[in-house]
Amino acid sequence: MRGAGHARWAAGAMVTALAATACGGGGGSGSGTTGAVLSSSWGDPQNPLEPANTNEVQGGKVLDMIFRGLKRYDPKTGAAQNMLAEKIDTPDSQNFTITVKDGWTFSNGEKVTAKSFVDAWNYGASLRNNQKNAYFFGYIQGYDKVHPATGSQSADTLSGLKVVNDRTFTVKLNQKFSSFPDTLGYVAFAPLPQSFFSDHAGWLQRPVGNGPYMIQSYTKGAQMALGKWNGYPGPDKAQNDGVTLKVYTDSDTAYTDLLAGNLDLVDDVPASQLKNVKNDLGNRYINTPAGIIQTLAFPYYDKAWDKSGSEKVRTGLSMAINRKQITDTIFQKTRTPAGDWTSPVLGVEGGFKEDLCGSACDYDPAQAKKLIQEGGGLPGGQLKITYNADTGSHRTWVDAVCNSINNALGNDKACVGNPVGTFADFRNQIGQHKMSGPFRAGWQMDYPLIQNFLQPLYYTNASSNDGKWSNKQFDQLVDQANAETDTAKAVQTFQKAEEVVRDNMAAIPLWYQNGSAGYSERLSDVALNPFSVPVYNEIKVG
Hints:
Layout: H1 20-23, E1 37-42, H2 57-66, E2 71-73, E3 80-82, E4 85-89, E5 95-100, H3 114-125, H4 143-146, E6 161-165, E7 168-172, H5 180-183, H6 195-198, H7 200-205, E8 213-219, E9 223-228, E10 242-247, H8 251-260, E11 265-266, H9 277-281, E12 285-297, H10 310-319, H11 323-329, E13 335-337, H12 347-350, H13 365-374, E14 383-388, H14 392-409, E15 415-420, H15 423-431, E16 439-444, H16 450-458, H17 472-483, H18 487-504, E17 508-519, E18 523-524, E19 540-541
Parallel strand pairs: 1-10, 14-15
Antiparallel strand pairs: 2-3, 4-5, 5-7, 6-7, 8-9, 9-10, 11-17, 12-16, 12-17, 13-17, 18-19
Helix pairs in contact: 10-13, 13-14, 16-17, 16-18, 17-18
C-alpha cells in the first residue's frame, strides 16, 4: 500500500473532531465501555480516510478497522476469503457476477447493497475525484472514459459495472484477469454509504463504515479514538471495547512509553531496541514474516537518473550495499537480505524467487565502483537518500547504507542521508516529484499476489509508481500475465517482467521485513497479520 503515499483532514487545522454519535447508528450500535480500550502507536494519515484515496500504511490501519469488503485476507495465512461476497462467478476470467451477502449494514443502519459497491467504485475511478487508488479500477471496462490519461473524462460511470438487483452486480473487465477476485479484499474496493455522496464534507469529518469499529474522535498530531461497534454484523467482532491510536513521531519514544506502562502496543519495534526487546518483553515480543520489502526508488522524472548508462549506476549502487552486514548488525535478524522484488510470504508457488536478482544484489565493492564509473558517475557527484525521520530505524539503516556505499567508492562523502521530518511530509514531497535522488520506498502488500509487488510500483503511471519509471516490455509482460488463466504460467510471466525490473535496476531491493511488535501485560491474543498490521479486533484487554 502502502508504500505509497498518498482535500487533507481539515487542511491547516490542528484538530479535527469526529463525533461518536455521528459515527454510530441507532439500535444499540454505539461503542462499548472504556474499560477494555487498548492504546497503540500510530502516525497521522496523509490523506482523508476515503478508501480509494488511501495507499499508505497509517491510514490503511484505520480503514481496515472501519470497513469490510467483498473479500478479507486471512489474518494468519493471507488467503483471500469471502467476507461480504456470497459468491463470485465467472465463465471466462473477464466477466464476473458478484453476489453480496444479505444482512450487512453500515454503522448508521443503512443496508449494504450491490449499489454500495458500484457507486464506491465509480467514485474511486473518476478522474475528477482525484483518488490515489483510481488505478486499481483500471481493468474495468470504461476506465479509459472516466479516467483518461489526458484530457477530460467523457463518462461519469464505468460501463463495465451494472447493478442487477440489491444483492447482485456484474463486472466486465477490458481484458482477462484471472486473479481479479483475489484483489477485492483491498480497501479501495470497500462499499460506501449514501452519506458519502450526499454530504461528502460531512462524511470526511464523521466517517461511516461497515467494519467492527467506529471513529469517535481525531486530534491531528495527538490521537484517534475508535470504539467497538456493537451492532457489527460480521463474524470477526471486536474482542475489546476500542482502540486509541496515539501519534508518535519517534518510535523510540513509543517503545519507552510501552515499558513505562503508558502504551499497550507498539507495532514497529525500533532498531535501536532490538538488542533489548527480548529481555524487556519476553514472550510479549512478536517477530514474524510479513509481506513487506524495503527498496530504494529513483526519480525518473529527473533526467539525471533516466539517461543512457544510469542503469549501470543503479546496479553499481546495489552492489555497493552490504545487505547481510546491515541486517545482521542493525536489525538483529528481523530483516533478510532481498534477492528479488517480492516477499518470502508469497512462497515459491506464489512467485517468490530469492535469487532472481542474482549478482546485482551481491556485495561486490570493486564491481560496484567499476559500474558506477562506466555509467557516468553519481549524478551531481553525491548521493542523497531521502527518508522520513519520524521512525528511528530509518536513519540508522540509511546511515549504514551510505557508509557501505562510501567504503565501496573510497569516498566518505559520496552518500549522505537526507531526512524529512514526518512521514506525511515525506509522502507529500514524493507526490510532488521533489526527489532529486534515491528515496526510501517500503512496500507493504495490498494482497498476497506477485502482481501486487510489481504492477502498482513499476507499471507505467501506476498508482504507487512514485519515481515514474516506464518500460514497454515490462508493461506488456504484466498485461500478458494478468490475462493468463493458468496460475503457474501467470507467475512465470510475472517473473519475466520482474527480470526487466532487475536488468534496469528500476529500484534497488534492500531487505524483506519481518513484522515486529511489543505489547503490555494488559493484552492477550495479540498477533500481526501477513501485512504486519495488528489484528486489532482479536486483541483482548485485561
